[in-house]
Structure formats: C-alpha cells, structure tokens
Specification:
The complex is a heterodimer of chains A (394) and B (159). With 394 residues, chain A is of the alpha/beta class. Chain A folds into two domains: 143 residues, Aspartate Aminotransferase, domain 1; 238 residues, Type I PLP-dependent aspartate aminotransferase-like (Major domain) (Aspartate Aminotransferase, domain 2, 3-Layer(aba) Sandwich), CATH 3.40.640. Chain A is 42% helix and 12% strand. In chain A, helix 3 packs across helix 10 and helix 4 packs parallel to helix 10. By secondary structure, chain B is α+β, with helices and mostly antiparallel strands. Chain B has two domains: 38 residues, Arc Repressor Mutant, subunit A; 85 residues, Alpha-Beta Plaits. Chain B is 31% helix and 21% strand. Chain B is extended and about 65 Å long. The mean pLDDT of chain B is 91. The chains are: A alpha/beta (394), B alpha+beta (159). Chains A and B meet through helix 2 and helix 11 of A and helix 2 of B.
Chain lengths: 394, 159
C-alpha cells in the first residue's frame, strides 16, 4: 500500500496553497438538507428562452456536431462585434479582436494567463466573485485586494486604488455590476478609473457579464473611455442576461495582440466552445432582445421587493443597482456572517451565502440572490424577518 | 402597458403591499391606481385560470368560425352583440380573413353545443354560415402553460 504521508505531496505548491471556495463549503452544508429555500444561487432561475433552445435543437438536427474555428464561428463573432459596438459604442474587428470562449470563466482565465508573469501584481476589488484571486495565483501573479464598502455603494474608488498600486502592478480587474454586491459604476467613476489606468499604464480586464442587468444608471463599458480600448480586455457572455449558464458560452474583445495570445492558450487547452452553444448564442443576439428585457424587468421588481423587505426586517441593505444580488449587513446584530448563515439555515431553512466567501471585507454581510421565484423570495423574507426579530430580542 | 397592470395580469391576488414593494412605490398609490383602473373599466374583472382538463367535467368547448353579412349602419357590431349575449359564449372576436367572427363556446355536453349552433347561432338573421371545431385538450391558456415545466436542476448554492 502506498502511504501518501511518507512522501511530499504530489500537488503543485501553488495549487495546494489555493483556498477552498467558501461557496463550496457552504454548498456541502446546504445540499445535505431538504426543503431549503435557497437565496444562494448565482444563476438565473429562468430557463433559457424557448427560441434560443429551439435554435440549438435545430442545429443538432442538422448535424452541427463538429469543432468550430478556434476563435469561434465567424457568424457569431460578427454578431458579437455588432452587439458590442451597438450597445457600448466600442468597435471590434470580428476577424481578429473577438474570441468565443467556454463561458466568461474561461475568458477570464485566458486573459489573466496571457498577460501575467510571475510576481506581477493584480489589483481587484473585494467583495468579489470567488475566482479572481485564485486565477491570478494560478498564473503565478500576486492578487492585491482593494476593499469596497456600502458607502459609496461598493464602488471601487480611485483613492483606494492609488493606495495599493505599485511599480509591479500590471493589471486591474474590474467586475461591474458586481457579484455579490450589485454595485454599478457611473460614468464619472469610469472616467476616474480610466485616468488612473492610463496614468499607471495598467492593463484592464473588465468582466461585464452582468452589465445588461443594470437597473439604475447607464449600461456602459469602461472600454469606451478615452485611452481604454487599447489596454482593455472586455469580457462578456450569455449566461446571465439570456439565462444561458448551462450553454457555457462567453467571449473576449481586445486588441489583436491580446486576442492572439489568449487564442494560443485557448487552442491548446479548450480548442473551441461547443458548436451547439455557439449556434444558440447567435440566436440570442439576433432575436433575444425581448426575452432579455422581460427577464431584466422581473429582476428589477424583485430587486425593489427584496431591498424593501430586507430593510424592513432590520438588515441595512444598500440598494443594488445591477446583477441579481442584495448584500445586506448583518454585523450590527453582533453576529459573524458565517454564523448568521448557518443559524438561518438551521432555524429557518433559508440559505444565504456568508459575505466572507467573497473576500475578507465581506465579513458582516450576507449575499441574497434574487434569481429565485418571487414566491420563494417572499417566503424567505418572512423567515429572515422572524429570525432577525429573535436575534434582536437576544 | 403600465407595470402595475402587467403584475396584476400575472397574479391578480398580489397584495397592494407587495405590489408597492416591487414597483418601488407606496401602498396607497397602488390602491388608488387599481381603483382608477376598475372605475374606468380598464380592469374588467378578476378570474381564476382553471385547467378544466384536471377536473372530471364532461364539459365541451368549441370554436366556431362564423360568416355574417354586415348591415348598413350597424356593420358587424349588431350581430356580434347579439351573439355575445348568449351565456354559452365565452369569447367573441371580429376577425380578418376567411370568416368574420370567431366564437368560443362551452356547454355541458356535445348536444348542448350542437343545439346552440343549429338552433341559436345559425338561425340568427345575418349569419351566413358556421364551422364548428371542438377542443380536445388545453396546452396553454392566457399565456399560462397547463402542465408546469419541470423545475430545472440548479445547484442549491453557486458562485
């Protein structure tokens, strides 16, 4: 028998050193229970609109079962270029500046690996999506977290960025609207951050997968700011706005040099995004506006509801302006995020993710996803109100 | 369409308090608006959407295409109005194309509907012809699927 303790671990040190995702820990706990109302889900509750599903079925019937070009179907890249220039006013050449990926997750990995050398520092704002820090580490870079706070609405400020920037900083990672806080940047904020990036000659990766789910303020991209297009890798995808998470299709737009570099990694690792998903994505861009708008309106109503209900329940919650998460404070009740989530699960069978899963500065907060049917949200809010009532009564 | 009406069309039982939360307004405003819609006839009523296939009813529903001759001055309206008053008639529309009126009717049994068509509808002055189609099964009504889609298999917690 092979005693693994007698020899050093075979796992690479930089992988062994990665923290386990706090989401995964919590998932294991929640999965063991029945009858839980989950506000812990980071994907739409809508099924992909029928016409998009149907286009994928049609493609399958016609025998679309092959690889595609590494960059993705040219037809899809043309659709993407038209969509991005039409929506955000940034032109990209579908021939050399657009890469179709397996979700934004892959695009993010490619982008980081394509530009980071060992020891390069990467600025990113916390609380944030769970992958950013680990991805940078896997590329042998150094993640540098910049904290954001409820005032000013979890936006990253130039002041806080200036405090963390060093000569080793190469990259700034942005995600607005933000998972888990629902923060949205205004035009003035983008102008400031763009000036900061130009001043320090930084590359910017902007993960804009939630940008179509913006309820207040402009649905804009930082790539449109002066001096930004040439230093920005714009990432977006179909998962959130078109409810297509399972299709796994996203894309990157950037200058040819960067796309070429990302493409190299992509062709050796992933080869291409699944053709049926690419076909579905073409249909989504061409004919998916109405469905997208309808879902966005529904999220906005739920956002209004959950924001009002959380505040009424005694949890201070800033008003999320995008994505589908509320990030209320629980710390003022004298309880840690994780304990709040665990007790809420135990006592009321409602699952919310502790804020600490999204970075150390998420302590004192929980994430409530409103990508859940209204009836469930309503019941969950009742139970949270009862739970908070008991906590306050001591 | 006003968002309040959309929400009520989705669920007429939604409380004014919840409607106000979703719309980002207050309860009194919502109540006042609903009163106004009811008063001006924008809202004509509230009904449950029943999947009758689930009930053990032997009721019969049919759609009838009716051709009529329009009258001077009255156009189609007078005949349509007469037809619409029969209790057997659920819905009635003036149509473009190969016929003039589309009539949705229901009766307790086949004979009821047949009698209504042959004795009431077809004999009305101005009715030229009728074509009756019996409904066999309802898949979707008023935008609502009669069979709920299976809940999708989302993970309980995901990033």
């Amino acid at each position: 028998m092979n005693d693994s303790k007698s020899r050093p671990s075979r796992v690479a040190r930089h992988v062994a050193g990665l923290p386990r995702s706090g989401i995964r820990d919590f998932f294991d706990i929640v999965s063991a229970r029945d009858d839980v109302i989950s506000l812990g889900i980071g994907e739409p509750d809508f099924v992909t609109p029928w016409h998009i599903r149907e286009s994928s079925v049609y493609a399958l019937e016609r025998g679309a079962t092959s690889y595609t070009a590494n960059l993705g179907l040219l037809e899809l890249r043309e659709c993407i270029a038209r969509y991005i220039s039409g929506t955000f006013g940034v032109p990209y050449d579908p021939g050399s500046e657009v890469l179709v990926t397996v979700g934004v997750s892959e695009a993010l990995d490619l982008a980081v690996r394509a530009v980071i050398e060992p020891g390069d520092e990467v600025l990113y704002h916390e609380p944030c999506y769970v992958s950013y820090g680990p991805l940078v580490r896997m590329a042998h870079g150094v993640p540098v977290a910049v904290d954001t706070t409820p005032d000013p609405g979890f936006k990253v400020t130039v002041d806080s960025l200036e405090k963390k920037v060093t000569p080793k900083t190469k990259l700034l990672l942005l995600n607005f609207p933000t998972n888990p806080t629902g923060a949205v940047l205004d035009r003035a904020d983008m102008e400031g951050i763009a000036r900061f990036a130009v001043k320090h000659d930084l590359l910017v990766i902007t993960d804009e997968v939630y940008t179509e789910l913006t309820y207040e303020g402009e649905c804009a991209s930082i790539a449109a700011q002066p001096g930004m297009r040439e230093r920005t890798i714009l990432l977006n995808g179909f998962s959130k706005a078109w409810a297509m998470t399972g299709f796994r299709v996203g894309f990157a737009c950037a200058p040819p040099e960067l796309i070429e570099a990302m493409m190299k990694i992509h062709q050796y690792t992933m080869l291409c995004a699944p053709i049926l998903s690419q076909r579905a994505a073409i249909e989504a861009i061409r004919n998916g506006d109405a469905a997208k708008r309808e879902m966005c309106e529904e999220y906005r109503r739920r956002r209004n509801y959950i924001h009002a209900a959380l505040n009424e329940a005694g949890l201070e919650c800033h008003k999320p302006r995008g994505a589908f998460y509320a990030f209320p404070r629980v710390g003022h009740l004298g309880i840690k995020s994780k304990d709040f989530s665990l007790r809420l699960l135990d006592e009321e069978k409602v699952a919310c993710v502790p804020g600490t899963a999204f970075g150390a500065c998420g302590e004192g907060f929980i994430r409530c996803s409103y990508a859940t049917q209204m009836d469930d949200i309503r019941e969950a809010m009742k139970r949270i109100a009862a739970f908070v009532g008991r906590l306050k009564a001591g | 369409m006003d968002e309040l009406l959309k929400l009520l069309k989705q669920n007429a039982l939604e409380s004014p308090r919840n409607l106000a939360r979703m719309l980002g307004t207050d309860e009194d405003t919502v109540k006042a608006k609903i009163d106004e819609y009811e008063r001006t006839g924008v809202i004509r009523g509230y009904q449950a959407l029943v999947n009758e296939d689930k009930l053990d009813l032997s009721r019969v529903r049919a759609v009838i295409e009716v051709k009529i001759s329009p009258e001077r001055e009255g156009g189609f309206d007078r005949v349509a109005s007469r037809i619409s008053r029969f209790p057997e008639v659920d819905s009635l529309y003036l149509m473009s194309g190969g016929y003039d009126l589309l009539v949705f009717v229901q009766g307790d049994n086949l004979r009821d509907v047949a009698l209504f068509v042959s004795e009431k509808l077809a004999t009305l002055q101005g009715v030229l012809s009728t074509a009756t189609h019996f409904m066999l099964k309802t898949y979707k009504d008023q935008g609502v699927l009669m069979e709920s889609e299976r809940r999708n298999e989302r993970l309980q917690v995901s990033p």
